[in-house]
Amino acid sequence: MRLTSTASPRASADGIAGWAAGLVDTLGGPGAGLVVALENLFPPLPSEVILPLTGFAAGQGVLTLVSALFWTTLGSTVGAVALYWIGRAFGRERMHALWARLPLVKPSDLERTEAWFARHGTKAVFFGRMVPVFRSLVSVPAGLVCMPVPVFLALTALGSLIWNSALVLAGYWLGDRWGVVEKYVGVLSKAVLVLVVLALAAYAVLRARGHGRPGRRSS
């Protein structure tokens, strides 16, 4: 049974969430789509707040549930496409030039990464849309390696639809307790971020040790 409430979405939120709720109250579905598109470009706008809040708004009749899912998925896709084109405009040559200036890395590392993305990029884009933190980041390498636009669009839209549906429906069914979703997804986001930081730190240590070893003398 869906939890009902007489509170308005705007009255139940403050800060960034209140600003997002105001746009949804004023513009309906397009407002939700705009907020989600901005969330892709500016991670401080967290989807674990925006999407359940949009679901709550749908439960209060501000917009329909179908409209909430359509516009949030469209917004996710538009935001991801913008990042894709940023990566594509930056280009492989500039990326390699920047990479060459970084400490503790070699050109071969980037080449192996590109090869991995060429083999597994479709899975990375699809599942990346459902992983906090990586939802936005995964679009940039897709642009760098020039993944075909129709493939990128299809994978991004489908992955976004699954993620958005889960959080929007949670907010719809929880009513004014939509903030519970933020709590649990926020924990997941922090766990993913910690794992990434640890992986990068371990990589840096291994690279430093590798550079510290004496090389073979050439004959």
Describe, in plain words, how this protein is organized in 3D.
The protein is mostly helical and 219 residues long. The N and C termini lie far apart (78 Å). The mean pLDDT is 76. Helices cover 76% and strands 0% of the residues. The chain contains 10 helices and no strands. The protein has helices spanning 15-27, 29-41, 47-59, 65-90, 92-101, 107-128, 134-137, 139-144, 149-174, 179-212.
Label the structural class. mainly alpha
Total strands: the figure is 0
Strand content bin: under 5%
**Rg of Cα set:** 21 Å
Tally of helical runs: 10
Distance between the ends: 78 Å
Query: What do the pLDDT scores average to?
Result: 76
Report the helical percentage: over 70%
Helix and strand run: HHHHHHHHHH
Sum up the overall morphology in one term. elongated
What can be said about the biggest beta sheet? none
Low-pLDDT runs: none
